[in-house]
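Project outcomes to date are best conveyed with an example. Our students and postdoctoral researchers have been running inverse folding experiments weekly, and each run begins with a structure described purely in tokens. The record below, which covers 220 residues, was selected by the lab manager from last quarter's runs and is presented without edits.
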């Protein structure tokens, strides 16, 4: 049997290798994202995330009910008023030629957390006003770090972008840091987004959703 110390060393080597591969990859390489997620998502870290999110009534209820978006009719949502959350979500996906992410089977809290974050990722983009370009993704990653616990995965994503700036284009560092600051500050001001049953809010005006969550969009 391998010792705990040896297992930790193996885990660290795997995490370092995945981060190096991610830095070398093109932006948006989902295979590298999956590799990184697998490398840094140890059970202890996942349990800390669950405990952190369960500290709010909304988060605790989410883990109890495990609500999922289910099947989404984008065309139906796209017929809602243009100021609604549902229209904004559908228009975002249709404009970018994307399809809603379908959650796989959910058997435990960890499965639910992963499924919920995956299928609501684009909704968080819309509600927070974060673009889908590199700066927008960095801003949302910083938002995640604050709202979903400072897990290794989200911190690794931010670190990856900073390392790429160091290696390939240091001139990007200022805009990257600005994006991190904007996302972090917005998340600290906002109410928790995790566990919201977004499909009950499709017809609600986007501005009302933001106001109810105290989402204050940064200037510039």
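After processing, the design step wrote out the following sequence:
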């Amino acid at each position: 049997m391998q010792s705990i110390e040896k297992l930790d060393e193996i885990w660290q080597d795997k995490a370092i290798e995945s981060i190096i591969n991610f830095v070398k990859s093109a932006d948006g390489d989902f295979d590298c994202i999956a590799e990184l997620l697998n490398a840094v998502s140890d059970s202890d870290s996942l349990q800390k995330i669950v405990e952190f999110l369960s500290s709010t009534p909304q988060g605790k209820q989410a883990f109890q009910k495990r609500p999922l978006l289910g099947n989404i009719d984008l065309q139906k949502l796209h017929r809602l008023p243009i100021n609604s959350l549902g229209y904004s979500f559908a228009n975002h996906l249709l404009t970018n030629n994307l399809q809603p992410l379908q959650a796989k089977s959910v058997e435990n809290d960890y499965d639910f957390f992963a499924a919920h974050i995956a299928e609501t990722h684009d909704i968080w983009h819309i509600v927070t006003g974060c673009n889908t370009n590199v700066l927008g993704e960095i801003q949302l990653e910083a938002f995640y770090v604050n709202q979903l616990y400072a897990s290794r995965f989200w911190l690794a994503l931010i670190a990856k972008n900073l390392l790429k700036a160091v290696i390939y284009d240091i001139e990007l560092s200022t805009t990257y840091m600005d994006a991190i600051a904007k996302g972090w500050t917005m998340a600290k001001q906002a109410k928790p987004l995790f566990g919201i049953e977004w499909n009950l809010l499709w017809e609600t005006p986007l501005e009302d959703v933001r106001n109810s969550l105290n989402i204050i969009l940064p200037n510039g």
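Residues 41-212 form one domain. The two ends are 55 Å apart (CA to CA). The training component of this project remains on track.
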